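Tokens in:
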């Protein structure tokens, strides 16, 4: 099945790139030449960089090589997606352009000459559509990349909890997920995230997974600003799936050294509610998966419970264990439209607050981005969850 899936994916990728080459280069040039060969080289080179960036990251290639490949490779992934979408949308524009050229031809005909419907060659229409598609794709990716690099914006959500005592009304938890420190998003980005969180003056900070895409050796300096996180009741961390691609045990120790408290299938009793955390599902491959019984099994169920769990799909276990509120990330809100539709198919909640029985689930879109440092239709956020007592 894996081989069949790989062959299918390669076939679709080849077909999509042939279609792009045809519309962007073959249909905009008059016969074989440098432009067509250059277009083929551009598409092939872009995908070579993209695949190289992905392989280098997962294989733990030298960090200098990862940094060289990451920017052009990952940006090409985003550009190619929106080039394809723009060219497909341009198929509807082509007939309109042809009609426009025909009208201009009729308007330019002299009274002595018979008006013959113009039959413009494909070249002018194709060239104009290709230019518009390229401009749309580059503009979309450029704006989406700026949105990530400027740093996440603050969202505020009020969550009523029936078991929360009146004394804790207004308690603020700063939730940040999916920072994805990497060869692209480094120390400066981490500092922006820290400054934004500290600016909210939270009572507690929850880092709910996917902090990094790389080893402690390579990205330890990038994560150093996390040591300056400030909250009255401390900062807590749970693993995401990407930690298990990056050396989860080493990162748990590193965040502990930076002053965060890792909740590895564990619970701490705060003055007014229990705060628990479970490992990510990806940890099962290393014998470190989520253990809800260990984290929640012997707690006082009369107290409110807030659970940190990276993936929204963990909500079903949270419901069975009587959790009042689960805080998650993982989805990125889809990150690149129309990726939100894929995220919706794989997750019970993609972004925002929803209720599952007596348990509420809040999913952050995340602060950073994986792969392309770009977001379209899914802006990054740090969420201040304000707990409200219903008494």
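Residues out:
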């Amino acid at each position: 099945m894996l081989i069949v899936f790989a062959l299918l994916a390669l076939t679709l990728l080849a077909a999509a790139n042939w279609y792009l080459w045809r519309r962007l280069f073959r249909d905009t040039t008059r016969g074989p030449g440098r432009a067509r060969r250059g277009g083929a080289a551009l598409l092939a080179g872009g995908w070579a960089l993209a695949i190289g960036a992905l392989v280098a990251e997962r294989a733990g290639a030298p960090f200098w090589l990862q940094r060289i490949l990451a920017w052009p490779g990952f940006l090409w992934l985003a550009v190619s997606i929106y080039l394809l979408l723009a060219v497909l949308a341009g198929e509807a524009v082509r007939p309109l352009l042809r009609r426009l050229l025909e009208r201009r031809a009729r308007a330019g005909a002299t009274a002595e000459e018979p008006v013959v419907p113009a039959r413009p060659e494909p070249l002018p229409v194709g060239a104009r559509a290709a230019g518009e598609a390229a401009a749309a794709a580059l503009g979309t990716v450029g704006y989406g990349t700026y949105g990530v690099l400027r740093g996440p914006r603050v969202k505020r959500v009020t969550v009523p909890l029936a078991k929360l005592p009146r004394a804790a009304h207004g308690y603020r938890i700063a939730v940040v997920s999916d920072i994805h420190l990497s060869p692209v998003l480094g120390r400066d980005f981490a500092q922006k995230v820290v400054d934004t969180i500290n600016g909210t003056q939270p009572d507690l900070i929850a880092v709910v997974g996917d902090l990094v895409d790389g080893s402690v050796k390579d990205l330890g300096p990038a994560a150093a600003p996390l040591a300056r996180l400030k909250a009255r009741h401390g900062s807590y961390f749970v693993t995401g799936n990407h930690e298990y691609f990056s050396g989860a045990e080493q990162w748990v120790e590193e965040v502990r050294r930076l002053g965060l408290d890792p909740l590895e299938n564990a619970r701490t009793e705060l003055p007014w509610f229990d705060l628990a955390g479970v490992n990510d599902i990806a940890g099962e491959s290393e014998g470190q998966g989520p253990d809800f019984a260990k984290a929640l099994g012997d707690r006082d169920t009369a107290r409110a419970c807030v659970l940190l769990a990276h993936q929204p799909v963990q909500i079903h276990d949270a419901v069975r264990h009587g959790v009042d509120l689960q805080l998650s990330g993982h989805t990125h809100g889809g990150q690149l439209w129309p990726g939100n539709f894929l995220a919706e198919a794989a997750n019970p909640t993609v972004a925002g607050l929803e209720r599952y029985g007596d348990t509420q689930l809040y999913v952050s879109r995340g602060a950073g981005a994986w792969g392309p440092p770009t977001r379209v239709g899914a802006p990054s956020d740090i969420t201040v969850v304000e707990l409200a007592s219903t008494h």
